[in-house]
Model the fold of this input.
Amino acid sequence: MAKFLFTMLADNTLGLSARLVPIGRLLADRGHDVAVFNPAPAPAQLIEDAGLKNLRRMPWRSKLPPGFDAAHVSSAWDVEENLATMYGDEHHTRATTLFYVDLIRRWGPDVVVDSFALPACLAARTLKVPLASVLQGDHHPASEGFLWWKGERPERVLSAAPVINKVAADLGVAPVTRAVDLLAGDLCLIVGTPETDPLPDSARVTYVGPIIWPGGDAALPDWVSELSRDAPVIWVYSGGSLPAPLDSSVVSRAAIAALADAPVQVVLTTGYQEIPEELGTFPSNFRHAAYLPGLAMAKRCDLLVHHGGHGSVMTGLSAGRPAVIIPTDTEQESTARRVVALGAGEIVVPVDGADGEKHIDIAEFGAKVRRVLNEPDYRQSAERVAESMCKFGGAGEAADRIELFATRTARAAAS
Done:
């Protein structure tokens, strides 16, 4: 049996943990020794619900990185520019990488399985621990970037490589041209399909399809099952709580403004996040839950409204349900525009207000909600994508490939 450590960007959203937890749970069920690291409250709750070991009690010194510019992250051209904002401070980057070096040494895994934790990837390289990465297409080095729909990439885009290479040199790791090159492991699995997450044929990746936690056998509470069949059900997911202008509370505000007292039933979930006081009392046609099983809820609803997180998109498409998406950064906009290109939804792009918050045209949002609900082509397109996704093995295939990778690397090390 092998020993695995699952790492991810340690922010207080559920996207990455919901991607990795199903794989970790399967490997643990097969008798492997599995640990996860994410100390943030919402992911920690998800990890606990899955019955997995979270190393969150080890010292954690992370706050928002020095020099972190949320406005720049929200407008980043690609993941390299995103990483440059998160890891532009050499002292912070070195300290965080050394933390992961210590974490990996303490746990002693045979394989590190990562999703978007750049210092963890550098730490694995430092200690020469085999690295398997589980990424969405936009996070892979061969991606066209978040703003692929705008055409050719600008010549000058911020890069995290200068800082990363200074830290890497101290740790005896070879320099990289771009920091994003470190994210793709010795084994690289793409969560999605060539249709939802296109990459060039030259990219050395394996598509495993959507990975969703919990799976289709999770039950909804009775009050959801008892919602009327006479009015459409709209599932609104507001996403995690992040600094403005990344904060996706614009999704909740827009839903309340446009759907209050409309002839629809709205289920609002917040991913274990607290409800902002500014939202006040919910309209009578709204119901709130901190968390609901994603795939089951997606199948029960007629339409999803969310911020464009990759996990939310995969959940909706897997269930064959269309979406109206309000992205708060270019990464989410990239994913949202893929959904629009597939004919499975619409996008409403926010603008930055004078108050530093995102705002949208409520009339446009309401019109697009009605259009997607009433025009069958959107649902049919989403159902077509769902059918194509069934060709991929999801968490089971990912676990199989990671398990085989661990076996092969162990044999290579012993020979």
Remarks:
- The first helix runs from residue 15 to 29.
- The chain has two domains: 3-209+392-414, 222-389.
